[in-house]
Amino acid sequence: MQTDQEREESIRNHIQGIVSDLNCMSIDDKRLAQIISSTINGEHRTLQQTFFRVFKEAIVHYGKYAYTDQRNEASRDWCNGVSQIKAYIPFI
User: Fold this and answer.
1) Angle 73-82/45-63 helices, nearest 10 degrees?
2) Coil, strand, or helix at residue 1?
3) pTM exceeds cut of 0.85
4) How large is the average pLDDT for residues 44-72?
5) Do 82 and 74 touch, CB atoms closer than 8 A?
6) Cα–chain-centroid distance for residue 65?
7) Is 11 helix (H, G, I), strand (E, B) or coil?
């Protein structure tokens, strides 16, 4: 059984893998979004809710980052704006 620290490290590695794929110039943003969407859509409905609940929280946290430069300022500002939308995604 994994410890919490091992699970967090595994999650970081998976996210870094996706970010690494994004860094590949041959990957189209819309195609990658379709892959992510269709993969999530194939999961159990409760897991779909959990994914978006967690993703919503990630957007909220990213929008609060104080450090930014011109490369990520628009993303941070967008996340900050989106995080102002009141949304409840229940655990069902």
Assistant:
1) 120
2) coil
3) no
4) 92
5) no
6) 15
7) helix
